[in-house]
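sry for the spam today, last one i promise. struct tokens for design, 173 residues
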């Protein structure tokens, strides 16, 4: 994919942040109906272990409310009840709903990326950095980014956190 094609795919503010921080990536087209990580991975035969989900965690029970952007692998789940609460210094935290996610990031679920968001801390699970490459949201529901996960260290405010995510348990038959 050419640079011009990548530029027309990825959300403008995301592209500006990637460019500003010198992050190397490739933009991938994504049909909006496949922007959910599991749907994208199944359709394009990408292992969930190579997908990075960006989620917003929040605590509205404190004033002012606190939020953080969290990046975890598709084969894991964010440890909101322990690790995120500890990082935010709050008693209760939860995943932000779709409306709050859009309000805080300007991005819809399935499209969220830490590039282009400066209003909150960014926590990256250390397991994400162990991958050779990951696919993640491109800021809009019609694009994904393919990148070396070490590029996730480049935006300001990023903290790599061991144990941010837990391995998903397989359902019992």
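last one done:
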């Amino acid at each position: 994919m050419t640079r011009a094609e990548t530029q027309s795919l990825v959300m403008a503010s995301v592209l500006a942040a990637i460019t500003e921080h010198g992050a190397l990536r490739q933009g991938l087209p994504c049909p909006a109906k496949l922007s959910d990580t599991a749907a994208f991975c199944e359709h394009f035969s990408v292992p969930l272990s190579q997908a990075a989900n960006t989620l917003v965690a929040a605590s509205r029970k404190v004033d002012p409310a606190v939020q953080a952007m969290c990046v975890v692998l598709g084969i894991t789940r964010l440890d909101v009840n322990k690790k995120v609460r500890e990082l935010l210094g709050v008693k209760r935290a939860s995943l932000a709903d779709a409306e709050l996610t859009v309000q805080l990031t300007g991005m819809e679920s399935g499209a969220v990326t830490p590039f282009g968001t400066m209003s909150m801390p960014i926590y990256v699970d250390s397991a994400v950095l162990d991958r050779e490459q990951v696919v993640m949201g491109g800021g809009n529901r019609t694009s994904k980014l393919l990148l070396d996960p070490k590029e996730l260290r480049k935006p300001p405010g990023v903290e790599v956190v061991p144990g941010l995510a837990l391995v998903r348990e397989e359902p019992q038959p």
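Residues 1-6 have pLDDT under 50 and may be disordered. ok im logging off now
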